[in-house]
Amino acid sequence: MRNVVACSEGVGRLGNAGTPEKTPKASTPSTDDIPVAQRETVAVAPKRRTSKLAVLGGLTLLGLVALTAGVFVAQQFQQAPPATIAIEPDTATAPKPSASPEDALLGHYAYKEAPQAQLAPITSDGGIKLRKAAAVAYRAMEAAAQQAGVSLVPISGFRSLEDQKYLYFDVKADRNQVAAERAKVSAPPGYSEHHTGYAVDIGDGSVPAVNLSPEFDKTAAYKWLQANAARYSFELSFPTNNKQGVSYEPWHWRYVGDIDSLKTFYKARNK
């Protein structure tokens, strides 16, 4: 029988001579003894971790670049003027806009009737009235003309819708005129400047025969008005070749001496 003894290096066998046989030490295998598949697995593992880190780093860098570019582009859009803002045309060369079909009827613009409380007489009998501001200006203008030896005579001032209905429809029928023909000398009701209380027809007291006719422009009254009416904020409404196509009316003047009258005659028609 063989005896088994313990030794510090491990468990050995007793030989036939009684001396213990040393257990042979396991030799460390060389890398050449490791199968190729195992060597590749061990070698590739750390590279795969490095590759993941590189990809994550690259994505992070791309994200920062994209964020920076987005902020820059947003700032550029904020600083640039909106594309919808158009450049205003040069008023010195741009043509004046004409009235749209909604603004005019047979060449005349729509006007509201002035309130009676805002009217004041310009004749001694109170039969002819204008808006208060226009009345004050007209009386001053008439007095100045009188001092210059010129007789200004008011023929017509404020007109109601009923007054204008008669002048347009009834007179048109009496004279056998078509609508467009009548509109050249008289506006349809609701479209007369006389409704505003700012318009006045003026004649020459010395030559009444030419009142309300084109020949009025040959009178002293007309010549004085041409030279001085603007001092009192009056202007000719229908000069020759006017854009509205209304017949030349040298007797028809309108007051434009306050903001309301300016809006009435200019802003509403975009002149």
Key attributes of the depicted protein:
271 residues, alpha+beta, Muramoyl-pentapeptide Carboxypeptidase, domain 2, 2 domains, four-stranded antiparallel sheet, three-stranded antiparallel sheet
Q: In words, what does this structure look like?
A:
- The protein is of the alpha+beta class and about 270 residues long.
- It has two domains: about 40-80; about 105-265, 2-Layer Sandwich (Muramoyl-pentapeptide Carboxypeptidase, domain 2).
- It has six helices and eleven strands.
- The protein has helices spanning about 35-80, 130-145, 160-175, 180-185, 220-230, 260-265, and strands at about 5, 10-15, 20, 105, 110, 120, 130, 150-155, 200-205, 235-240, 250-255.
- Strands 8-9-11-10 form a four-stranded antiparallel beta sheet.
- Strand 1 and strand 2 (about 10-15) form a beta hairpin.
- Residues about 1-45 and about 75-100 have low confidence and may be disordered.
